[in-house]
Design brief:
Order of helices and strands of chain A: EEEEEEEEEEEEEEEEEEEEEEEE
Largest sheet of chain A: 4 strands, antiparallel
Helix content of chain A: under 10%
CATH superfamily of chain A: TolB, C-terminal domain
Order of helices and strands of chain B: HHEHEEEHEHEHH
Helix content of chain B: 10-25%
Number of helices of chain B: 7
Number of helices of chain A: 0
CATH architecture of chain A: 6 Propeller
Radius of gyration of chain A: 17 Å
Oligomer: heterodimer
Number of domains of chain A: 1
Strand order of the largest sheet of chain B: 1-6
Structural class of chain B: alpha+beta
CATH topology of chain A: Neuraminidase
CATH class of chain A: Mainly Beta
Radius of gyration of chain B: 18 Å
Number of strands of chain A: 24
Strand content of chain A: over 45%
Strand order of the largest sheet of chain A: 1-24-23-22
Shape of chain B: elongated
Chain lengths: ~270, ~210
């Protein structure tokens, strides 16, 4: 499988659709709309990359996710803000302990997941925000190994959680109950099939494949669910070399969106037949 | 009657203690100097080996090793442990592009003088040693300040916890430091003694 870049969205600047200082998280909904958490708010782009709307969050957003009903969740320091599809605030979940630094959000059948980088764990809540259990914490180091300071994960069609564990050079699979199912990935400094550096992959997305980004040198890759490398979606030349914690998202057609955290743009790649 | 110890006093004492510990044997030399005197120090934000933005593939600058009049150099690599990720595979310790051994680790070390030691924090699971934190300690008697580990530790490849620092039990405080004369980035600077005793974070973020 190969990928080609088809679009570039955003960029550094002050006009609508650009980002002044940060681009931290991406999500794509069922209609191909792209949601970006950056600066001090959420920006929504249509599938062609045009700005549809933007609104401010009460604290700088660290993550964004869209539920099946179109509700938008923004992860922040010590809270999650929940917005209607029109961007109106409908609820705020606050928790000093369980929501220390929410760098990822996802959804399972009847629950909401929040990656808390402050405690190196994924929190499982019911739909009303009541805590159920931790994920990724039942191990000798009491959490995921995230030297980069970001917990990131994605949920597949079977409600299996695929969590980046960069310190172990793995993507780990968990049930929502916290049970570890397995993992893919291994360290290798030169083989593109491996994860290089001290701590990769940093970010993950799931669709028909498992998609990851790495830092130092930055790249985006696709794996099958057995851990076999399918493609290097984009190599280091595509990104600023100092990028790290590049959010990655995938839509229903397999189009992959990657955030360049230095140039503050979103690179869009589509799969093409080899 | 003694004054009550405030939280600020306590934090200052803790900070001072950790700085003195980080300064190692040089601390006593530094505190003996009079206020108002200046000493040489490396500005990590200017140093090629540690400043952000330079490519991670650039060779380390070795001028602190080659130019200093002191044997090996008065500049040594220092790991600021509070910033260290304590990774299983540290790019400053391992040559991460070397062949992977049977344990899944790079087979070569980064330091040409083998000055860094790697130890598990607590007891590592022999079945799964990657699932652990590791402590990286630099032996300053071996280190010659070549900056190779510093270059590999800096972001985004690492976390930038290793920096080059002048050690005051070695530095002879030349009137015109030989390193400063050759440093292309003017990273060897003179700072007041009292400033050299403060941790860099406090120096750059005064209240």
């Amino acid at each position: 499988m190969q990928y080609r870049q088809i679009r570039e969205i955003g960029g550094k600047g002050s006009v609508p659709g650009q980002f002044a200082s940060s681009l931290r998280s991406l999500a794509v909904d069922a209609h191909g709309q792209v949601f970006a958490a950056g600066d001090a708010g959420i920006t929504v782009f249509d599938p062609a990359g045009r700005v549809k709307r933007r609104w401010a969050t009460s604290r700088p957003p660290l993550s964004v996710a869209v539920a099946k009903d179109g509700t938008i969740y923004a992860g922040e320091l010590r809270q999650i803000e929940i917005f209607s599809s029109a961007g109106k605030l409908v609820n705020t979940w606050r928790d000093e302990t369980l929501l220390g630094r929410v760098t990822a959000i996802g959804f399972v059948k009847d629950g909401v997941l929040a990656g808390d980088a402050a405690d190196r764990a994924i929190r499982h809540f019911d739909a009303a925000g009541k805590f159920r259990n931790n994920i990724g914490k039942d191990n000798p180091v009491n959490g995921l190994l995230i030297p980069n300071g970001v917990v990131d994960f994605a949920v597949d069609a079977h409600d299996v959680i695929h969590a980046a564990n960069p310190g172990r050079h793995r993507v780990e699979r968990y049930r929502a109950t916290g049970e570890l199912l397995g993992h893919i990935g291994r360290f290798h400094g030169t083989d593109p099939a491996g994860f290089g550096g001290c701590c990769n992959p940093t970010n993950v997305a799931v669709g028909g494949s498992v998609y990851v980004t790495e830092k130092g040198g930055p790249r985006a890759k696709a794996y099958d669910f057995d851990g076999n490398l399918q493609a290097v979606i984009a190599a280091a030349e595509a990104f600023d070399p100092n990028c790290k914690n590049m959010s990655i998202a995938v839509d229903g057609r397999g189009v992959v969106y990657v955030a360049d955290t230095i140039k503050l743009n979103i690179l869009v790649f589509e799969p093409v037949a080899a | 009657m003694s004054e009550p110890v405030t939280r600020r006093d306590l934090l200052n004492n803790v900070a001072r203690g950790s700085v003195l510990a980080a300064l190692g044997g040089g601390a006593i030399f530094l505190v003996q100097k009079a206020h108002g005197q200046v000493v040489w120090q490396v500005d990590a934000s200017r140093c090629t080996n540690s400043r952000l933005g330079d490519s991670t593939n650039v060779e380390a600058c070795k001028l602190c090793t080659t130019e200093c009049v002191v044997a090996l150099s008065a500049v040594r690599a220092v790991n600021e442990h509070s910033k260290c990720g304590r990774c299983n595979i540290c790019p400053a310790y391992f040559n991460i592009t070397s062949a992977v051994d049977e344990k899944g680790l790079p087979s070569e070390k980064q330091c040409p003088r083998d000055a860094i030691t790697r130890k598990p924090i607590g007891k590592a699971d022999p079945e799964d040693p990657a699932n652990n934190f590791y402590d990286y300690v630099i032996d300053e008697d071996k280190c010659d300040g070549c900056g190779k580990c510093v270059m590999k530790c800096k972001e985004p490849l690492g976390l930038g916890s290793i920096v080059l620092r002048v050690r005051y039990d070695r530095c002879v405080n030349c009137n015109k430091c030989a390193i400063s004369r050759s440093c292309p980035k003017d990273a060897m600077i003179q700072v007041p003694v009292e400033e050299a005793l403060r941790p860099p974070e406090i120096r750059h973020n005064p209240e």
